[in-house]
């Protein structure tokens, strides 16, 4: 068997993709037709009599012990090639290059693999062909994090948008989706967009997308903006902004 790694973006994973990959494999030698011999003949190994295994005697604290090991002369094949092929040195295989088409279904995840049967190396001297295991590697996305079939992202909004409410255009893997931010939204609030996540493998169902809004405090303001905030701060003194009990509970657990 052969194993190759294939790096995919979340966009490719969301829709499924076909990839053409050029690889080197060991195929039957053209000169000896996979026999490993110039004349196509092989002879029974005289050491193991064609069994591919030999019996060995070993001394131990408990006396002599018999063990069965692979024949060192024929390497377990039971046959010896006297006139080895000059092209493959008796192996019966030569390295060739070929292009394979790999179909990746939508929804695959990091660490999963696609098995392509019979596309791997040819076995020595007429042996069966192995498989190719295509290991899926998921590229890091600049916006989204993945949790199974769900997607998670953070979206910055201004203080005025959070206080007054607004409509925002959230990024998705296929474009953008409109989402309503209600008035009085707090920083860290998480909204869910149903079925905007990744598809489940071999299924029509999709995961969801979770949008965490972050209220951004401005760092560079002009004089007009500062004056407006000063006027707003006069109303803040009339509001009793006290931390909730849950805040102290979390703070206490943090220092435990």
Labels describing this entry:
single chain; elongated
Describe the structure.
There is one protein chain. The chain is mainly β. It contains four helices and 17 strands. The protein has helices at 10-15, 159-164, 223-236, 245-255, and strands at 2-8, 17-28, 43-44, 53-60, 63-70, 79-80, 93-104, 113-116, 122-123, 127-129, 132-138, 145-147, 150-158, 166-172, 175-181, 190-193, 209-216. The strands form seven sheets. A four-stranded mixed sheet has the order 12-13-17-16. It has a three-stranded mixed sheet with strand order 1-11-8. A two-stranded antiparallel ribbon has the order 2-7. The longest helix has 14 residues, at 223-236.
Summarize the structure.
The protein is mostly beta strands and 256 residues long.
């Amino acid at each position: 068997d052969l194993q190759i790694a294939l790096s995919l973006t979340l966009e490719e994973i969301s829709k499924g993709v076909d990839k053409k990959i050029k690889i080197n494999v060991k195929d039957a030698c053209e000169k000896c037709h996979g026999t490993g011999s110039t004349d196509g003949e092989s002879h029974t190994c005289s050491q193991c009599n064609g069994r591919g295994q030999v019996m060995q005697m070993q001394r131990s604290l408990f006396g002599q012990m018999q063990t069965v090991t692979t024949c060192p002369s024929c390497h377990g094949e039971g046959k010896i090639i006297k006139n080895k092929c000059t092209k493959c040195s008796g192996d019966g295989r030569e390295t060739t290059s070929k292009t394979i088409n790999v179909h990746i279904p939508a929804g695959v995840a990091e660490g999963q693999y696609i098995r392509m049967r019979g596309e791997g190396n040819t076995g020595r001297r007429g042996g069966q062909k192995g498989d190719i295991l295509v290991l899926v590697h998921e590229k890091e996305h600049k916006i989204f994090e993945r949790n199974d079939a769900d997607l998670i992202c953070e979206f910055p909004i201004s203080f005025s948008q959070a206080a007054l409410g607004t409509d925002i255009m959230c990024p998705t893997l296929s474009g953008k989706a409109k989402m309503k931010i209600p008035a009085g939204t707090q920083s860290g609030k998480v909204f869910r967009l149903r079925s905007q996540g990744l598809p489940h493998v071999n299924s029509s169902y999709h995961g969801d997308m979770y949008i965490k809004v972050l209220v951004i405090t401005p760092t560079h303001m002009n004089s007009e903006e500062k004056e407006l905030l000063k006027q707003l701060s006069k109303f803040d003194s009339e509001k009793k902004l006290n931390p909730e009990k849950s805040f102290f509970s979390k703070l206490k657990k943090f220092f435990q």
